[in-house]
Write a structure and sequence with these properties.
Blueprint: E1 3-4, E2 9-14, E3 20-26, H1 36-46, E4 63-66, E5 68-69, E6 72-73, E7 78-83, H2 105-111, H3 129-144, E8 149-157, H4 163-175, E9 182-189, H5 203-211, E10 217-222, H6 233-236, E11 255-256, E12 259-260, E13 265-271, E14 281-285, E15 290-294, H7 309-329
Antiparallel strand pairs: 1-2, 2-3, 3-7, 4-7, 5-6, 8-9, 9-13, 10-13, 11-12, 14-15
């Protein structure tokens, strides 16, 4: 459904053009210093404004409405709300009959029998990730106390891996009324040995679950990833060179048997091109029963990957915070 986590549990709510979006976080340890100001830096990294991002301008002002008292977390469920204001819902009226190719319009219509809020993508909009970023910032506080740091960066856009080439790919997509995808790499350092379980609750399985919940993410790989299929065991195996488990290479991406091995957790996510593009496309028109041209109106990102790194960091923090709190439940040897 719309919740994720066991000890650190998040529940998202809202629609892109509804009154508000937000998140409820259960399991936040009591006593953490926290205010709206603490959330603003990461939220600013998610904002639009750069070339290739939407022209929709929202304040993204976080309102902490529960779970904090006199500047500290209480241990009760913590709720953060963001009001929506810069909406142009009329731009989406034609999508009721003509779902966008590549978007959730069709499946949402079918699953919820036409009762879904289609404006701006409704509950499927990337705007919902505002709450994820807020919850991730809080999770970082818990992880920092355990020596864990997380950093994501754009690795590739439109096939280009250098800054000039990536900028050119975005520019060409904008000029061509099209969109372009990208790859984001994330590293979590300081994760101790022993987080995660074999099989269904492995670090890869749970983290992938969270990452695929980010709109537009279509692929996840850890360590050497798909390149491992082209390597020999003698190449892929990471020699252990110290008693703490440090390895000479990190093709495993910091995880063995689903359990963190003490080396940095390294993974990459593939972000697809934005579905909403101004280039005319064809789609089925439910009003006429014919395949017809579709022109998508509204304001959309030409490259959503530009805004994804902080969201990837947030999802990683949420997941690892949950593992950290679960590890704290395990009796010491």
């Amino acid at each position: 459904m719309n919740s994720f986590g066991r000890r650190y549990r998040v529940s998202i709510f809202g629609e892109s053009h509804g009154e508000s979006v937000g998140i409820v976080v259960d399991g936040v340890p009591a006593g953490l210093s926290l205010s709206a100001e603490d959330l603003r830096e990461d939220l600013a990294r998610r904002k639009a404004g750069a070339k290739g991002t939407t022209t929709r301008k929202e304040a993204d002002e976080p309102m902490i409405v529960s779970g904090v008292f006199e500047g500290r977390t209480t241990g009760a469920p913590l709720t953060v709300v963001f009001r929506n204001s810069d909406t142009r819902s009329g731009d989406y009226a034609n999508l009721v009959s003509q779902p966008r190719p590549g978007h959730a319009d069709f499946v949402a219509r079918e699953k919820w029998h036409g009762c879904n809020d289609y404006r701006g993508g409704g509950h499927f909009s990337g705007r919902i990730t505002l709450g994820i970023v807020a919850a991730g910032t809080i999770a970082r506080r818990v992880l920092e106390e355990k020596g864990v740091t997380i950093e994501a960066r754009i690795k590739e856009i439109g096939g280009a891996t250098d800054a000039e080439g990536m900028a050119r790919a975005v520019e060409q997509a904008v000029k061509g009324l099209d969109s372009v995808g990208g790859v984001v790499e994330c590293t979590a350092s300081g994760v101790p040995v022993g987080w995660g379980e074999p099989f269904f609750d492995s670090v890869e399985a749970v983290l992938s679950h969270a990452l695929f919940s980010i709109p537009a993410v279509k692929g996840v790989e850890f360590g050497a990833g798909f390149e491992a299929a082209r390597m020999r065991g003698s190449e892929h195996n990471d020699p252990i060179v110290a008693a703490d488990g440090t390895t000479r290479t990190n093709h495993a991406g910091g995880i063995n048997g689903g359990i963190s091995n003490g080396n940095p957790i390294v993974f990459r996510v593939a972000v697809k091109p934005t579905s909403s593009i101004s280039t005319p496309q064809e789609t089925f028109n439910f009003s006429t029963g014919e395949v017809e041209p579709l022109t998508v109106r509204g304001r959309h990102d030409a490259c959503i990957a530009l805004r994804v790194p902080v969201i990837v960091e947030a999802m990683t923090a949420i997941t690892l915070c949950d593992f950290a709190l679960l590890a704290g439940d395990t009796p010491a040897k």
